[in-house]
Amino acid sequence: MAKLKKTSVFRAQSPKIETAMEKTTRIARKMVEEEAEQRKTKNDFLRNARLERDTNTPTKP
């Protein structure tokens, strides 16, 4: 059995280099998430405006 040295057991791992494909995927997912958040905010605003308009509009007899 090989002898383990103190420096070989708990060696710090070098950071993984991000490939071009991983970088593109990360950026694309971030963009999609931001667009989804903006869309949700806009929908909530429009929904609230519509509900407020409907409650303030008198109905015709």
H/E element order? HH
Cα Rg: 28 Å
Describe the global form.
rod-shaped
Alpha plus pi helix count: 2
- How far apart, in Å, are the first and last alpha carbons? 94 Å
- Strand element count: 0
Characterise the protein shown here.
It is a single chain. This protein is mainly alpha-helical and 61 residues long. It is built from two helices and no strands. 67% of the residues lie in helices and 0% in strands. The chain has helices at residues 6-9, 20-56. It starts with 5 loop residues before the first helix and ends in a 5-residue tail after the last helix.
Task: Spell out the key features of this protein.
61 residues, mainly alpha, 2 helices, 67% helix, rod-shaped
Blueprint (SSEs and pairs):
Elements (H helix, E strand, L loop, with lengths): L5 H4 L10 H37 L5
